[in-house]
Design goal:
The complex is a heterodimer of chains A (853) and B (168). In chain A, a hairpin with a 3-residue loop joins β20 and β21. In chain A, α21 packs across α22 and α22 packs across α23. Chain A is α+β, with helices and mostly antiparallel strands and 853 residues long. Chain A has 32 helices and 30 strands. Chain B is an alpha+beta fold and 168 residues long. A two-stranded antiparallel ribbon of chain B has the order 2-3. In chain B, α2 runs antiparallel to α3. Helix content of chain B is 45%, strand content 11%. The chains are: A alpha+beta (853), B alpha+beta (168). The interface between A and B is large, with 93 and 59 residues. β12 of chain A pairs antiparallel with β1 of chain B.
Chain lengths: 853, 168
């Protein structure tokens, strides 16, 4: 037997090709035990690397190389990268814990149907580490045979062994938890799924008993058969139907050096491989004709068995190779050859340098055996196209991938959890950095771990994007969300979708519709049976937004500053230029001194003033206070409040509002624009303080404010926004801001400090791109600016609505496509100037005249 | 930027014998090939020698040529991967004998002969239709060529009455 093995290895056909398939004894959390070995299995977490800075990536790569060298040295390891489809039904189950208001079931069902339609692939990273060789104990095999013959052999694992192995697995897991992979023990359900999926079984998996799957339940996992053809495998289920075709590729050649960023990221790119189905597959009727025009993902899987060589073993191997090369050089020089072949001399130098690196710089070597598994549930032709796509893709980065001809059976078995290395002769020896730069754990990951699904990740790995704008206050975290970008890219739609999600969670959502395009939000809320209403401000609500009243909780000191600033915005510029702010301040102080101050009282004092300038100012302001725009904040209070405090979606529109363009100087604002800005000032404070009422403290609240850049354009407005953001946090109110001016947000420290989530849409000027980069915690480089510029376009150069860069509460950034689940909802939320008729007859048409933003 | 290096090719360098028993071999011959040739000649020639003794002049080539050809062709590198042709031949032979047998229920039971892939499917075929026709049969098909006659109730009644009449 040994002679045969030696001859096989000499011939290049070594390895345990004839070993039995793994015979599972027990599965438990983080543990797989077979008859021949015990392995600890861990689930690795993906890292958000797509938009990471180069320094960040290098630092993480160094950490990983260190982890490989320190923690996994000497262990036989098995890395598996597998895919599954996002389970849309699971979202329906989650929705029961998320939503409570309106027809949330329909809302969740629409979202689940959309997720099912998208069929998002989800990547799973599994790492197995052999912790015990169960064949090593003397007589183990003989004892098993004797027990089997006597019929007293027990299936499963003894408690003592299980406890011991579980402890070893946990200890290793604690060390791996500290690495960038943030490894956690793989649950028994995940391990069972990992075994069953190799046979593409779709039936229910066995439930673990006391956390362990063993005995007959284990048998269920591997029911089915695999037919090994020369160049592929046919997977047949228990009923005899072919469920899948698969091919295992080996990778016999790699470039000598691989870099990251660059072609060295050969495992991260698994999600990026695509192919176009051929016409022949259409003839089989397996693929719809529409799909032919689509570029479909291949989603190959990877199985890499590797072992980090202990230093003495590596040094011995390196030294032996160096000596051989040296001996060859000397031997050649003695004879007629004169000198050895060039590659031999090169090897001597490389080995010498490598030895030095290992001694001085701690370089470690590993052996790995990479396999790529390509499968297709459609047909053999489709499988071959996918294989061609994978081979071509790797060929373009200098890696040779070939079908393992006539050894598909061995290669497939080798990829099973708990199996052994069967085909060792296509492996590689490299430094740990060469495996680390493959970035198998890299990809795109941003958003909350739980909460409503808002969109999908569009980076190198896909997945769902979740965000709950009301979660900040629950976490005692910051409470402001900013949505930044140019018009027409989907900012307001994002705001409305977030507002709807919040409303379904039982929140009171107050949307201050300065621009006049949030009417669709009311229609959408009505469509899903959420309590909703559209309110227009006017003279009926005189005084409801008086800053004296709204800021009274903070004391009169704040109002003493803000009211004059607001009246300064409203008054004619000639009066302001003449110095009318002085008598206004005096009148404010006098009103405060009298007690029970109000803006209407300030105007009365001005009108009654003996000073000509003050009187003229008072008359001007009085006239303005009688208008629908001025009445809410300058009129005499009627006591009527426009807003309900019930949970639901409440949109406040201000008819006649006309906000100035951010480029227009304040001195050039006309009267409508001045009044509009002043009213906006006041309605914002009204919204925040209404939401912050004591009786509403336990209620989730959201105040959505579009076009905030109009406020930030003035110093007074910026200061006010700073104040409101801080007050909102104290009042347990979540603020959602929409703006085109990233720089304006940065300059307001109070707002920036309160930002928990930032949505960055397209911006076109360099200054704004840099400002957005700062808010997104991305480096201000040409690459980032290009990303911000291009984020709003698709591959064909057309506008891509809803595509943005998101920075989440953990300061991670990735690209996201905000997704509206149904076409009906998208039509309802349309913010373009097309008319949207409200069932109550309220005209929701955006005010055309004077709307600049 | 980080760079990783793969040293596989360096560790696979092969020693060449530049001199053998005092004879200068020039650029040298791979030591593996020399050993392979030695093994091939021993494996081939020893049994023949034991059966037929020393070779005569007419049969010398029978002793020398086959292992020489096997060495020459077998030690060459395969065009597709890193293996030598001999390894590819062994793997191919192994597939013909063992590698085509299905894995049933994760290896819990061995596949019976009837479950093995037929010989015609053990070769790499680009013809998808041929594979689609695969039938796992344990023997030749059973041909049903029965042509039963149908007897209606009238006829049964008639023959029953006839039988009763005969019995009487």
């Amino acid at each position: 037997m040994r002679l045969l093995r030696a001859i096989s290895e000499f011939a290049g056909v070594g390895g345990d090709r004839s070993a039995q398939p793994p015979r599972y004894l027990a599965l438990a959390d983080g543990l797989v035990v077979t008859e021949t070995k015990a392995e600890a299995w861990f689930k690795l977490k993906a890292s958000n690397t797509d938009l990471m800075s180069e320094q960040g990536r290098d630092a993480e790569l160094d950490e990983v190389a260190s982890a490989l060298s320190r923690i996994l040295v000497g262990y036989e390891c098995h890395l598996k990268i597998v895919w599954s489809s996002y389970d849309a039904d699971r979202y329906l189950a989650e929705a029961e814990t998320l939503f409570i208001a309106g027809d949330w079931q329909r809302w969740a069902a629409d979202r689940a149907a959309r997720l099912a339609q998208l069929d998002l692939p989800v990547r799973h990273l599994l790492l197995g580490v052999q912790i015990e060789d169960r064949t090593a104990s003397k007589g183990a095999a003989a004892r098993r045979r004797a027990e089997t013959a006597a019929g007293i052999r027990r299936t499963g694992l003894g408690r003592k062994d299980l406890r011991r192995l579980s402890a070893v697995s946990r200890r290793l897991g604690k060390r791996l938890e500290m690495t960038p992979w943030k490894a956690t023990p793989a649950t028994v359900d995940l391990i069972a799924w990992g075994i069953a999926r190799e046979l593409h079984r779709s039936g229910p998996l066995p439930a673990p008993a006391e956390g362990v799957v063993s005995g007959a339940s284990l048998a269920q996992l591997t029911r089915g058969r695999v037919m090994p053809y020369p160049d592929h495998l046919q997977v047949v289920d228990a009923t005899g139907s072919t469920v899948s075709w698969a091919t295992v590729l080996t990778m016999p050649a790699f470039p000598q050096t691989m870099t990251s960023p660059g072609g060295g990221e050969w495992l991260r790119v698994l999600s990026e491989m695509t192919y176009v189905p051929d016409d022949a597959a259409l003839d089989d009727g397996d693929i719809d004709e529409e799909d032919q025009e689509l570029i479909l993902p291949v989603l190959p899987e990877a199985s890499i068995r590797f072992r980090v060589l202990p230093k003495p073993e590596s040094l011995t191997r390196v030294d032996d190779t160096r000596k051989l090369a040296k001996e060859q050089r000397r031997s050649a020089s003695k004879g007629s050859a004169g000198e050895a072949q060039q590659h031999v001399e090169e090897t001597e130098g490389v080995m010498s340098d490598l030895g030095t690196d290992m001694q001085r710089r701690g370089t470690m070597l590993l052996e790995d055996h990479p396999r790529i598994i390509v499968s297709s549930p459609i047909s053999l032709t489709d499988l071959r196209e996918r294989v061609d796509a994978v081979i071509t893709h790797y060929g373009s980065i200098g890696i040779t991938a070939v079908t393992g001809e006539e050894e598909q059976r061995d290669l497939w078995l080798e990829g099973q959890i708990g199996d052994v290395l069967r085909v060792p002769d296509t492996g590689h020896t490299r430094d740990v950095q060469a495996l680390a730069v493959s970035w198998w754990w890299g990809g795109s990951q941003v958003g909350d771990d739980s909460g409503p699904v808002c969109g999908i990740l569009t980076g190198s790995t896909t997945g769902v994007f979740r965000n709950d704008i009301t979660a900040g206050s629950e976490r005692r975290d910051a409470t402001t969300t900013a949505i930044i970008g140019r018009s027409g890219r989907g900012k307001t739609t994002v705001m409305m979708m977030a507002a709807l999600d919040a409303a379904f969670r039982g929140s009171m959502v107050l949307a201050l519709d300065f621009k006049g395009d949030l009417g669709g939000l009311v229609n959408a809320a009505r469509y899903y049976d959420l309590p909703t209403g559209l309110v227009e401000t006017g003279t009926a609500f005189a005084g409801c937004a008086d800053l004296f009243t709204l800021l009274s909780a903070e004391g009169q000191e704040r109002a003493a500053i803000e009211v004059p600033a607001q009246l300064g915005i409203a008054m004619p510029p000639d009066l302001r230029a003449a110095g009318a702010e002085t008598p206004v301040q005096a009148a404010v102080n006098a009103a405060i001194a009298e007690g029970s101050p109000s803006t209407a009282r300030v105007i009365e004092l001005l009108r009654a003033s003996p000073d000509d300038l003050a009187a003229r100012t008072g008359e001007a302001l009085y006239g303005l206070s009688l208008t629908p725009l001025g009445s809410p904040f300058m009129g005499r209070a009627t006591g009527v409040q426009p807003l309900s405090s019930d949970p639901g979606v409440w949109v406040v529109q201000m008819p006649g509002l006309s906000l100035p363009k951010s480029a227009v100087l304040r001195e050039d604002w006309n009267v409508v624009e001045r009044m509009s800005v002043a009213l906006m000032h006041s309605m914002l404070a009204y919204g925040i303080t209404t939401a912050g009422r004591r009786d509403l403290r336990t209620l989730r609240k959201v105040v959505a404010v579009p076009e905030v850049h109009v406020l930030t354009a003035t110093r007074a407005g910026a200061s006010f926004l700073d104040y409101i953001a801080r007050v909102g946090r104290a009042l347990n109110t979540n603020l959602v801001l929409d703006t085109q001016d990233a720089g304006g947000i940065i300059e307001i420290e109070g707002v920036t400090e309160q930002l928990t989530t930032v949505y960055g849409f397209q911006l076109t000027t360099e200054r704004q791109q840099n400002n957005l980069a700062r808010l997104l915690e991305l480096p201000e480089t040409e690459q980032t600016r290009n990303l911000v510029r291009a984020i709003g376009f698709d591959e064909k150069g057309e506008i891509r609505h809803g595509h943005c860069i998101v920075r989440d509460r953990r300061n991670q950034s990735a690209t996201v496509q905000i997704d509206v689940p149904t076409a009906e909802l998208l039509e309802l939320l349309d913010t373009s100037p097309k008319s949207q008729e409200d069932a109550d007859g309220v005209d929701l048409k955006k005010t055309q005249e004077g709307v600049q933003v | 930027m980080r760079t990783g290096s793969t040293y596989t090719d360096h560790f696979r360098i092969e020693g060449r014998q530049h001199e053998l028993f005092g004879v200068d071999l020039g650029e040298g011959y791979p030591r593996g090939a020399i050993l392979f040739a030695f093994v091939a000649y021993v494996v081939w020639c020893l049994p023949i020698f034991l059966l037929a003794g020393l070779p005569g002049p007419n049969f010398l080539s029978l002793y020398i040529v086959p292992p020489g050809i096997v060495t020459m062709l077998g030690y060459r590198m395969s065009p597709n991967d890193r293996r030598r042709n001999i390894a590819v031949w062994i793997i191919r032979a192994r597939y013909r004998v063992f590698g085509h047998r299905p894995v049933i229920c994760g290896g819990r039971r061995a596949a019976s002969r009837s479950e093995w892939l037929p010989r015609s499917h053990r070769r790499r075929s680009a013809d998808v239709d041929e594979l689609a026709e695969l039938v796992h049969a344990a023997g030749p098909p059973i041909v049903h060529d029965a042509r039963p006659r149908l007897y209606g109730p009238d006829y049964l009644f008639k023959i029953t009455q006839n039988h009763k009449a005969v019995q009487k």
